[in-house]
Amino acid sequence: MRVTRHRLRMSVGLLVTGALALSGCDSSAPEAASSASASPTPSRTFTAGAEGVGDAYFPSYGNGGYDVGRYTVKVRYDPAKDRLTGTTTVQGTATADLSSFNLDLAGLTVTAVTVDGAAATHTRKRNELVITPASGLINGNGFVAEVTYEGVPKPLKNEILGEGGFLHTAEGAIALGQPESASTWFPVNDHPSDKAAYDFEVTVPDGLTAVSNGVPGGKTSADGWTTWKWSEKSPMASYLSTLVIGKFRITTGEHKGRPVYNAVATNVAKGAADTSIAQTVKVADYLESVFGPYPFDAYGGVVVSDNRISYALETQSRPVYSAGFFRQGENTEVVAHELAHQWFGDSVAIGKWEDIWLNEGFATYAEWLWAEHTKEYTAKQAFDIRYTQVPAQVWKTPPGKPGVKQLFSESVYQRGGMTLHALRVAVGDKAFFEIVKTWAAEKRNGTATTAEFVALAERVSGKRLGPLFDAWLYGTKKPAPPKALDLSS
User: Fold this and answer.
1) Alpha-carbon distance 188 to 91, whole Å?
2) How many CA atoms lie within 13 A of 309 on its CB side?
3) Handedness of CA 74, 155, 414, 237 (dihedral sign)
4) I need a surface site. Which of 102, 248, 266, 422 has the fewest CB within 10 A?
5) What is the Cα–Cα distance from 283 to 456, expressed in whole angstroms?
C-alpha cells in the first residue's frame, strides 16, 4: 500500500538538492474392524473452530480449524438502492475435528447456509458467522459451505487504521482496504495466512462495469443487468480482493500471453493517470528482471477518484490507485511500488501482520530500484537522504515490530527500504539480488516471516546477518552506516 500523504513521497527534484520530502497433522478415519472380535472404532471429539487465527496484532481476524482452497463469490449490487445480494461458496478442508466453524462477515443478513448440501445452523456474533453443520467435519476431509446473504454493505471503521471495505459511490461502489475489507461483501476467512483461489461473478445494472481480480471471464447481459466474471487462480490473501463498480475508460490488451486490463474512472481527467497505468507492463518487465518471473496470470490497474481513498493498494494482479497520485503529472514510482507488491505481499504474503515490513520495505525499495533503472536517482542517493533526514520517530519505531498503531508508519516503509539497502551494501549486488530472487521463488504462492527471510539471506550469502537485521529492524536507535562485509571467508 502507498498513501498519498506527502510525507511518504520523495520528489526527484528534492533528491537532487539533497532535501527529503517524506511525502494439526492430518488424520484419516480408522479402518473398519475386520471381525467381531476386533477393537471398536475410537470415538472422535468434535470442537468448535477458533474465532481467530491468533494474530498478535489482530486476534479476532480470520478463523481456526480449516483451510480454504477456493471461494466462488456471486453478488448482485443495485447502486440506486445500495443493496447487495449474494451467494458465496467456500471450498475448504478441515484441519481439526469441527463441531462448528466461523466465517468473517460484517453486517449483511444471512438467509441460508448449507454444508455439503445439507442445511446448517447459523448464528451471528458481531462480525462472526458461526456455522454448525448437520454432522461434524472430520480433520483432513474437504467440505463445501454455501452462504446466501443480503443487505446494505457498510465499511469497517478502525480508529487506528481508518475505514476500509465496501464503499457506496455516486455511480457504484468500491470494495477496498487493508488490513481487512473482504468481509464487508462476502463471508471469508479474513486473514492473509489462509490464501485461496477466487472466482467472482458480479451483476450490476447495464452501463456499469464491475472490475475485480485476475483474468477477465467476459460478460453477459439480460433484463437490464450485466454479469461480469473474473478469476484469480493463484492463492490470494482476502484483503487483496477488490470490487470496483462504475464507469471507466477501459484499455485491454495482451502481454507475454497474459491479459492486460486497465480501468480509469471517467471522473478522472484524461492524461497522467492513463499514461502512468499504461506503463504497467513496462514496469512489470523491469521488476521481473530483478525479482524473477511475474507471479500472476493477468496485468492491470484501476484508478478511482473518491475522497475517502487517499492510497494505492496492491490488490492482486490489478492494483487500485487513488487519482491523487497523478495530480502532479505522470507517476510511475507508485506503479512500481504496487507492482512490486505482486511479488512481495501478494505472491509472498505475510503470515502475521507484525511482519508488514516484508511487504512495504520491499515495495519502497522497488521504487528506488525503478528510479535507478530510469536514471532519475540511485538507490544509494535515496538511502543517504533518508538516513540523514528522516524524523527521529523513524528510528524509535522498529519496522520489524512496529505495533498496531504504527503498522503503516514511515518506519515500516522508509526504514524497511533502508534495511534492504543495508543488506545490499553488506553482501554486495550479486548476493543481494540472488537473495531477492530466491525469496520470491521459494515462497511463491505462500506465506512467510521475517525470521525465514533472515535465514534465507544468511544461507544465500553465507554470512551471519543477525546483527544487521537486529539493528535495522528491531533497534530503537539509529544504526551505524551500512558497510560491506568480508565475503571472502
Assistant:
1) 11
2) 27
3) negative
4) 266
5) 27
What distance in Å separates the CA atoms of residue 486 and residue 445, rounded to the nearest whole number? 34
Walk along the chain (489 residues) in steps of 10 and give the mean pLDDT of each run: 55 36 37 40 86 95 97 98 98 98 97 98 96 98 98 87 88 95 98 98 98 98 98 98 98 98 97 98 98 98 95 97 97 98 98 98 98 97 97 98 96 98 98 98 98 98 97 97 75
Dig out the grid coordinates for 369 from the structure: 530500484
- For residue 363, what is its C-alpha cell? 515495495
List, for residues 39-91, the tens digit of each pLDDT value.
444 689 999 999 999 999 999 999 999 999 999 999 999 999 999 999 999 99
